């Protein structure tokens, strides 16, 4: 009796478990045996710029299926399909006459084609929704927007980073059918998909067009290996524009060329590092002033080089700058001033500032593939290394990291988080979520920041950044010309030319970093390769935003009247520099000879005082 009672209880327990605990799963498994399902992809959310302009969107397409057992007149069905879709009648008839319960006859059909097929009266034709991702401007913000895979999932850029918001939830079309695939009386059930959310970015399509045009102009002029430009609001970290060359059309992704696809789809501005050169001097100067290792009135002597740990380190000006103040050293970009400043701080204190500037880690920018800067281990740094780091050698940083660090120097000392997300809108619930990106701490004091704004503005008004000057507006900045390294040594003739500029106008607090990697020819100084384009960008952006100029009377002295540049070839370097100085022209020299062998711009070019002139000896 006990054995019978135990067995009966066990059977009852199992029955209860199956009926209650497993009912949902077993019901679903049973449904799959008599329900034919065709998935419907959710419409992927759109990506917009800050003004609501659509950058990426989804076109609904339809995948067409036929169930041969439900198509009573197969020749008529084949004829209808071939007429609507443009397929071969004989091949279509043979295809739908097979023994498979369901056959795919087309993918990506239009709504008009679908309606013609469904109204044809042949029966047996079913469909599923599919989505085609489209990008409004094609080769535009390629690395930022990214692209999706064949399954509709984000692969790179914002498409990948915010895929969970953009993707939505798929639906299905369920049709009741018997064992041989014939539709039963229960008919069809449609489970709607849930659309993805709309992503509003901090990008401005208008500013992006300006930047893309500047990149195109630089590529046409210098045929570089690569070029990039970032525009960021330095008070908030909002990325307003980001353009890179080379790139590709997002509506025609080169999936058959894996090497090109991999190289061009990741953003070099966040995923690669470069030696920043003189733009790094912004950070060295700010750190030295902030900790008291230097004062703007301190004087230094530059004879063209410094010898540190027995190694002679040259200034970019081979004959030296002579006696200069710290402020003049910033304006003239004297390497010796920055070597002395770094050595005065010492390794531990300088590295503390590098940590504060966020360069030894990632910025947290919301693009896939970000990497961090590369620095010599603090315990291994020698004096000669520290001296080189002071003027931007022996370090490697990401462009986005350099931009964010330098932004803190002019925004009052706040290390902002660069970002692209403004908000996410859910069309199903009608709710909107704002992007939140907190400050990463302070780098320098507000007083140091104010001093640096003045020093960097002098670089644009009087120094190597004059080509970026726009009359009627306050602009600060710093040029950079860095040699590249390969196989453990300097790669001869290969440079990265850059300019990092800041608009000091309250209506447009933008920082612009412009990089040209390996410009062709003998022109490679940042003052001539990068700075002019930053000036063009600022001028266009001010006009686009409606920021009015304020003239103080100094503009005429700064810019001067346009004139025709004389021919200085064959003259002594000293004589040519004296004549150009009398005209108020900033001069760069290349070579250590005493006679001018070439010049840029060429003789006869019409210029004003914003132009820098290169004399080759």
TrEMBL record:
Its main location: membrane. Keywords: Membrane. Residues 559-617 form the PASTA domain. The keyword Membrane applies. InterPro entries: Beta-lactam/transpept (IPR050515), Beta-lactam/transpept-like (IPR012338), PASTA_dom (IPR005543), PBP_dimer (IPR005311), PBP_dimer_sf (IPR036138), PCN-bd_Tpept (IPR001460). One of its GO terms (cellular component) is plasma membrane. GO terms for biological process: cell wall organization. It is found in: Membrane. The keyword Oxidoreductase does not apply. SMART domains: PASTA. GO terms for molecular function: penicillin binding. Belongs to the transpeptidase family. This is PASTA domain-containing protein.
């Amino acid at each position: 009796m006990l054995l019978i009672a135990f067995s009966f209880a066990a059977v009852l327990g199992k029955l209860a478990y199956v009926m209650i605990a497993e009912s949902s799963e077993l019901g679903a498994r049973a449904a799959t045996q008599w329900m034919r399902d065709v998935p419907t992809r959710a419409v992927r959310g759109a990506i917009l710029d800050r003004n609501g302009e659509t950058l990426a969107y989804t076109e609904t397409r339809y995948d067409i299926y036929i169930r041969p057992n439900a198509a009573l007149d197969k020749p008529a069905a084949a004829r209808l399909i071939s007429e609507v879709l443009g397929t071969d009648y004989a091949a279509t008839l043979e295809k739908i006459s097979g023994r498979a319960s369901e056959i795919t006859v087309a993918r990506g059909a239009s709504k008009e084609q679908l309606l013609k097929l469904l109204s044809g009266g042949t029966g047996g034709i079913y469909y599923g929704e599919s989505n085609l991702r489209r990008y409004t401007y094609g080769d535009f913000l390629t690395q930022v927007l990214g692209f999706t895979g064949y399954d509709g999932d984000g692969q790179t850029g914002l498409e990948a980073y915010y895929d969970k918001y953009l993707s939505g939830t798929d639906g299905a079309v369920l049709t009741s059918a018997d064992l041989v695939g014939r539709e039963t009386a229960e008919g069809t059930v449609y489970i709607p998909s849930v659309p993805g959310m709309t992503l509003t970015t901090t990008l401005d399509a208008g500013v992006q067009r300006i930047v893309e045009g500047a990149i195109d102009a630089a590529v046409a002029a210098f045929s570089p290996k690569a070029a990039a430009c970032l525009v960021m609001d330095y008070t908030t970290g909002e990325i307003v524009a980001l353009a890179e060359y080379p790139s590709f059309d997002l509506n025609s992704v080169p999936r058959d060329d894996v090497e090109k696809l991999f190289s061009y789809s990741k953003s070099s501005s966040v995923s690669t590092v470069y030696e920043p050169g003189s733009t790094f001097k912004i950070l060295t100067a700010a750190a030295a002033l902030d900790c008291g290792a230097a004062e703007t009135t301190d004087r230094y002597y530059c004879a063209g080089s410094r010898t540190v740990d027995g190694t002679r380190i040259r200034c970019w000006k081979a004959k030296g700058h002579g006696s200069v103040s710290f402020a003049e050293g910033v304006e003239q970009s004297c390497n010796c001033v920055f070597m002395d400043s770094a050595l005065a701080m010492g390794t531990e204190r300088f590295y503390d500032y590098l940590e504060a500037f966020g360069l030894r880690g990632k910025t947290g920018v919301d693009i896939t593939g970000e990497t961090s800067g590369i620095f010599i281990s603090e315990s291994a740094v020698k004096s000669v290394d520290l001296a080189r780091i002071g003027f931007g050698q022996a370090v490697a940083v990401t462009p986005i990291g350099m931009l964010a660090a330098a932004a803190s120097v002019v925004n009052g000392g706040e290390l902002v988080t660069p970002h692209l997300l403004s908000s996410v809108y859910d069309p199903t619930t009608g709710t909107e979520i704002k992007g939140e990106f907190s400050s990463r701490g302070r780098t320098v004091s507000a007083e140091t920041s104010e001093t640096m704004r003045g020093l960097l503005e002098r670089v644009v008004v009087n120094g190597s950044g004059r080509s970026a000057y726009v009359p009627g507006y306050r602009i600060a900045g710093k040029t950079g010309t860095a040699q590249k390294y390969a196989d453990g040594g300097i790669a001869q003739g290969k440079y990265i030319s850059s300019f990092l500029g800041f608009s000091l106008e309250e209506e447009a607090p933008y920082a612009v970093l412009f990089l040209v990697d390996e410009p062709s020819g003998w022109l490679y100084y940042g003052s001539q390769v990068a700075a002019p384009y930053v000036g063009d960008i600022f001028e266009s952006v001010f006009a686009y935003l409606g920021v009015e100029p304020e003239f103080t009377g100094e503009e005429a002295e700064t810019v001067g009247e346009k004139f025709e540049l004389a021919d200085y070839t064959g003259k002594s370097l000293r004589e040519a520099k004296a004549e150009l100085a009398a005209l108020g022209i900033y001069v760069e020299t290349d070579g250590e000879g005493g006679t001018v062998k070439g010049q840029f711009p060429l003789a006869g070019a019409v210029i004003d005082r914003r132009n820098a002139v290169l004399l080759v000896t």
